[in-house]
Specification:
Elements (H helix, E strand, L loop, with lengths): L3 E4 H30 L8 H26 E4 L14 E6 L5 E7 L10 E3 L3 H6 L7 E6 L2 E11 L2
Parallel strand pairs: 1-2, 4-5
Antiparallel strand pairs: 3-4, 3-7, 6-7
Helix pairs in contact: 1-2
């Protein structure tokens, strides 16, 4: 069984999503199915069929999240340190062409979210950064073209 890295925050979110599905969504859809059944003929009951479809989706989500939950290898980023980029690092980059500053945290594939400034460890930029030290210059080949960055700061928080 393959394990995959995850931060404490990602693990907590996964756990919260799983609890919500089990404790809120599942009971709600069961109630919706009961109410739809009370309306009579199930063969032409759109509410019943929609609720059953929703139940199937919820159950598949629960199975998927339970699998991820049991296979997660939780890494406490706050116990890491150093100036070398590794999993969990929050990296400040300076674009060498535009001088624009970008801050990214390197996280597991399941918790990556560009809006929250979290990139997957398997992304092109993270792969280029892993193992490099603060002050180094890196060339990142991405779908939008090649970019050069200087690693200005590496923090574990």
């Amino acid at each position: 069984m393959e394990k995959f890295p995850m931060t404490l925050g990602g693990y907590a979110k996964l756990e919260a999503d799983l609890k919500k599905l089990k404790n809120e969504e599942r009971p709600a859809v069961i109630q919706a199915i009961s109410e739809a059944r009370a309306h009579g003929d199930l063969s032409e009951n759109a509410e019943y069929h929609a609720a059953k479809e929703r139940q199937g989706w919820i159950e598949s989500q629960i199975l998927d999240l339970e699998d991820k939950y049991t296979r997660a290898e939780v890494i406490d980023v706050t116990k890491l340190n150093g100036k070398t980029v590794k999993f969990g690092a929050t990296v400040t980059l300076i674009d060498e062409d535009t001088e624009e500053e970008k801050i990214w945290q390197i996280v597991g594939d399941l918790e990556a979210d560009v809006k929250e400034r979290k990139i997957s460890i398997s992304s092109p930029i993270a792969r280029a950064l892993i193992g490099k030290e603060q002050g180094a210059s890196v060339e990142v080949s991405a779908p939008g073209g090649s970019r050069s960055y200087e690693i200005a700061k590496v923090v574990y928080k």
